[in-house]
Amino acid sequence: MKLLIVTSVSEFNTEVRALFRKAExxxxxxxxxxxxxxxxxxxxxxxxxEGSGQGTESDMFFSFTEPEKVEVLFGxxxxxxxxxxxxxxxxxxxxxxxxxx
Length: 101
What we know:
- It contains 3 helices and 4 strands.
- By secondary structure, it is α+β, with helices and mostly antiparallel strands.
- The protein has a single domain, classed as Alpha-Beta Plaits (2-Layer Sandwich), CATH 3.30.70.120.
- Strands 2-3-1-4 form a 4-stranded antiparallel sheet, covered by helices on one side.
């Protein structure tokens, strides 16, 4: 059993759900979150993100699932990210679960 955590900008919500289906991960939870990115000094000086403390609307998905399904999903996410024209790729991590009830 693994704990899978996936984050993405909200614009990719439908696509991420489809990736979960393709990986046959049928049970997962989803939560709205705000994503933040620290601006570089150049961006701050040039006025980008001026006065901004605002985050980006994002989603977090998590699931307790089998390692085989995690591997399938990671492959699908890598393929999805390779076609993006943005610097906001879907991100995923997996955490081993030592004990569960």
